[in-house]
Design brief:
The relative contact order is 0.12. The protein contains 8 helices and 31 strands. The C terminus is likely disordered. Helix content is 19%, strand content 28%.
């Protein structure tokens, strides 16, 4: 294979247990999002739009839906003979094999894949974040700084900084200290889980980390601190724009709601930076003569006969007469029958909400598992609530 300047590796094997019902049958990066996408579409589209044509996707937990969705990478222009997208699950060798033990170990187990392209740089990404980012600008920054590693950072509210890896830097953005989820953070510059490494340097630290039997084999806990302690040049790349880790029910719901805001920050209508996904080949959505749609996203193939307000409706959804969908996410091929109310809920795919039912109470986020059949009032009882 010909040499590539940079190879992207997307960590997409997480179970996403904090998303509860949404990840019971599929990996977090494959969870539907925003009416017609899956979460990983944002990272894959960022790669495509940034001119990165060689991408490895590291899968592990229940990957069937994710594998089927990515396929050979056609929607993202990654169906290439030399490069393109490659799915990389854990595998056995004559020396044995194991699940990916951590983010660093996942890359370690795929050193051979990366080496086959002989890259100068490796871009490490998460497959479960929603954002738009030009990685080529970050690579230019990395080169200009003469960095061994560059970590993208974004300002978060100081009250939430303890939830993130925090970078303490000098005036020229050089990192002198990294704190993983500190109790008393010194600043609010949080790691986005987007890294660029000089490949030969990273490979050395991956091999050393694998020898350490006490290591968690994690970038944040092990690799980055060891590089800092080893005197390597690490820089923070300040990112300005929308970014959200949708790893909890609340953040997932909020990110979908952000798409409905005029100034929400997540602009999916930017033709210069499109978010690509599989095309469902559905007919246009239908809106009945008594239907009311306010400040909502309604995907193709849906039939709306009732009221939809501040909500995201996926393809193939049927919302019957005299129904109200408020502040909710309704995933594909779901049926909401007559005289029902859905208020601040996340409804999975292929759900039937039978007539005269009430789901949600406008306060807590209620999640309905895909394929469920709902009848009656389900505001608290029989459903998990997530504050």
């Amino acid at each position: 294979m010909s040499k590539k300047e940079i190879v992207a590796m997307i960590l997409a094997g997480g179970q996403g247990s904090r998303l509860k019902h949404l990840t019971k049958n599929t990996a977090k990066p494959a969870v539907p999002f925003g009416g017609r996408y899956r979460i990983i579409d944002f990272t894959l589209s960022n790669c495509s739009n940034s001119g990165i044509d060689t991408v490895g996707v590291l899968t592990q937990y229940k990957p069937l839906t994710l594998n089927s969705h990515i396929g050979i990478g056609t929607p993202w222009d990654l169906d290439r003979i030399n490069g393109g997208v490659t799915l990389l699950p854990p595998y056995m060798t004559n020396l044995g094999g194991d699940w990916y033990k951590g983010t660093a170990n996942a890359i370690y187990q795929n050193i051979g894949f990366i080496d086959s392209y002989n890259p100068k740089y490796v871009l490490i990404l998460s497959g479960d974040h929603v954002y738009k980012m030009d990685y080529s600008k970050m690579l230019k920054f990395h080169k200009e700084k003469g960095a061994d590693a560059t970590i993208a950072v974004i300002e978060v509210p100081m009250a939430e900084a303890h939830r993130f890896g925090i970078m303490n830097t000098t005036e020229n953005n050089k990192i002198y200290e990294f704190e993983e989820k500190p109790k008393n953070p010194k600043n609010n510059m949080a790691s986005m889980g987007v890294y660029i490494f000089d490949w030969e340097k990273l490979k050395y630290f991956l091999n050393e980390d694998e020898k350490d039997t006490k290591s968690s084999n994690d970038f944040g806990k092990n690799i980055i601190p060891k590089m800092l302690n080893g005197g390597e040049n690490l820089f923070a790349y300040p990112f300005e724009g929308y970014w959200k880790d949708v790893g909890t029910v609340e953040s997932f719901w909020q990110a979908n709601m952000d798409m409905l805001k005029v100034d929400g920050g997540l602009d999916i209508y930017d033709n210069d930076w499109r978010i690509y996904s599989l095309n469902n080949d559905c007919p246009p959505h239908y809106v009945g003569d008594k239907a009311v749609i306010k400040n909502s996203l309604v995907a193709e193939g849906s039939v709306i006969l009732g009221e939809v307000t501040n909500s995201v409706v996926f393809s193939g959804v049927y919302i019957d007469e005299n129904t109200k969908i408020i502040n909710s996410i309704v995933m594909e091929d779901t049926l909401i029958q007559k005289n029902s109310i859905v208020d601040k809920a996340i409804i999975g795919s292929n759900v039937v909400v039978k007539k005269n039912s009430v789901v949600g109470n406008s306060e807590d986020i209620v999640v309905i598992q895909e394929g469920d059949r709902i009848e009656g009032s389900y505001q608290v009882k029989s459903l998990e609530k997530f504050a």
